[in-house]
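This section describes the prediction task in plain terms. A model, or a person checking by hand, is given the sequence of a single protein chain and must write out its three-dimensional structure as a string of C-alpha cells. No templates, partner chains or ligands are provided. The sample shown here is typical of the held-out split.
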Amino acid sequence: MKSNIRYILPVALMGLAACFVSCSEDKLSPDSVITVDKTEQNEFDKWLEVNYVNPYNIDFRYRYTDAEGHMSYYMVPSKIEDAVILAHLVKYLCLEAYDNIVGVDFTRANFPKMIYTTGTWEFKNNGTYILGTAEGGKKIYLMGTAYIKNYIKTAEDMNHYYLKTIHHEFTHILNQTKDYSPEFKQITGTTYVSDSWSDSPYNVDYLKRGYISAYAQDEDREDFAELVSLYITNTADQWEEWMVEAAEGDNDGKTGRELIEAKLDIVRAYMQTQWNIDLDDMRAEIQKRQNDVISGKVDLSDLTIK
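The expected answer:
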C-alpha cells in the first residue's frame, strides 16, 4: 500500500503570472527538451554512481519524470547545477551523518532507494506549500531546487527549507518500517487539528499547546517527525529557548513544555531501541556537519570522482 506523507509550510506571499504567445507559422520541434539518453552519462551521473548507487543503491533522479511527481501541481524540472547542490546536502548532512552514528549498513538498508527532485515546491490553495514527501518507504520526493542557492547561506534557512525536510521525511520512512508506541498519540491526541494547523489560532502559540511546530498539530505522524527533525537540526540553546516559551502554556494542568518533553521521551526511546540511534549523538553530528557547510568547508558543486 502506497502512503504519501507530506511536509508542508505556510506561504507568506505568492504571486502568479502567465504569458501566452501565439505563433501560427512556427512549428514545435519533435525533440523533447527533457528526455535524455541515459547511456550518455554526464559528469553528475558519474558522480552519482560513485556516491549514491555504489555505496547505498540509491537512485538520485534529477531529470524530469512526470510519473514520479504529483500531477495535480505545476512542476518545473531541476536545473542540473541546483540538483548537484541538493545531492551534496543529502549525502553530507544525512547519509554520511547516519553512517557515522549508526553505521553504513543501517543507511544502506533503510534509506529509500529513490530520491526524486523538482525545481519548485507544490503550492496549495490554502496558503501553504509542500517541501517534500515520503512514499511507501521506497522514495523521498524533495522539491524546491530552484531556490536552493538562496536558502543555504544561513543555518536557519538551510534547516527550514532543506535539511529539516530531509530528516523529517526519513523519519517517516523509519516509522513506516517500524511503528512507534501508541502512547505517543495519547499525550496530545485530542488537540490535533488536521489541515487547520496553518489557520488562526493554531498558527501561533503552538509551543504553549505542546507542539514543537505549527505543522506538528496536523496529526501524530507529523508531530513525531517534526520532533526528530527539529531536535537534531537545531542547537541545544535554540531548543531550550523554545522550551522556555512552551513552559508558559497551561493545558489542563500541564505546560506545553511538559507535553513536548513527554513526547520527546517516547521519540528518544523509539530511536534508541528500534534503530540504535542516540538523538543527542545525532544532533552533535548534524551540527558539526551543518557548520562545515555554512563555513564553506564543503564544496557543494564538486563532481570529482574519488
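For orientation: Residues 1-6, 11-26, 30-37 have pLDDT under 50 and may be disordered.
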